[in-house]
Specification:
By secondary structure, this protein is mainly alpha-helical. The protein is 61% helix and 0% strand. It is elongated, with a radius of gyration of 20 Å.
Length: 246
């Protein structure tokens, strides 16, 4: 059985190619010890010199919004649970499982492969190079990637449940906040966040392309009536999920 990918906007694979190429370019430039490292150091030093105590405390709480296992995954599971009961289909959980799988096989391996210390851990004159510190797991920023992917999942699950404006705030606002907080608190170098932004957008587009309603679920769930569509069925008077719009 061949699954047909869902349409997303912007359509085509050109934007995906640009996102992957941008991530690769940043990684290569950092590994080659280019002036990007000086930019990292300048941003880190500026943040450290202009961070009052009240801002530090506030932004640390905001930064918790990007914690995958402690915040984002449970929120997505809860949303999927209620939608599963409301629409009598287990398919909302497929999106959650897909998000967990795609972040698990990308973020962790990239962090281990690049071996970069966090901005707050580095005490020398220049930022830590990639492929250098065995204990480094800073690149790319997991908080930023998780924010884009998981808040994208929440936005899709809640489309038709809350207003389009709220959906847009969920999808776009938190990733921007996380990019700022992780940099301003020196948890990450600015290039960690920029690379994560590109990677997260690419992963989000991949997830939105998957035809979750067409994934085979087996005869038992089908006979029990729990394998019906999710994207193409919504309560009366509501809009179809984002992934269903061309």
């Amino acid at each position: 059985m061949r699954l047909e990918l869902r349409p997303i906007r912007p359509s085509g694979w050109w934007l995906d190619a640009l996102l992957v190429a941008g991530f690769a370019v940043i990684t290569i430039l950092l590994a080659a010890k280019t002036p990007l490292l000086s930019l990292d150091l300048a941003v880190r030093d500026f943040a450290d010199a202009h961070r009052p105590g009240w801002a530090d405390t506030l932004l640390r709480w905001c930064n918790r919004l990007g914690q995958g296992g402690q915040v984002l995954t449970p929120l997505a599971v809860i949303a999927a649970f209620f939608l599963t009961r409301a629409r009598h289909t287990v398919r909302p959980f497929l999106l959650v499982i897909g998000a967990f799988a795609i972040t698990y096989v990308t973020i962790g391996p990239l962090k281990i492969w690049t071996d970069r210390l966090a901005a707050s851990e580095h005490v020398h004159a220049h930022p830590e190079y990639l492929f250098y510190a065995d204990e480094g797991i800073s690149y790319p920023s997991g908080h930023v990637v998780n924010a884009i992917v998981w808040y994208g999942v929440l936005a899709t699950l809640l489309t038709g449940v809350v207003s389009p404006r709220v959906v847009a705030v969920i999808r776009y606002t938190v990733p921007v906040v996380l990019l700022f907080t992780t940099t301003y608190l020196s948890f990450h170098w600015i290039t960690d966040g920029l690379a994560a932004l590109l990677l997260g957008l690419f992963l989000d587009r991949l997830l939105r392309r998957v035809p979750w309603d067409a994934v085979p679920l087996g005869g038992r769930l089908t006979r029990a009536g729990w394998a019906g569509p999710f994207y193409d069925v919504e309560p009366a008077g509501t809009e179809a999920p984002l992934g269903n719009r061309v």
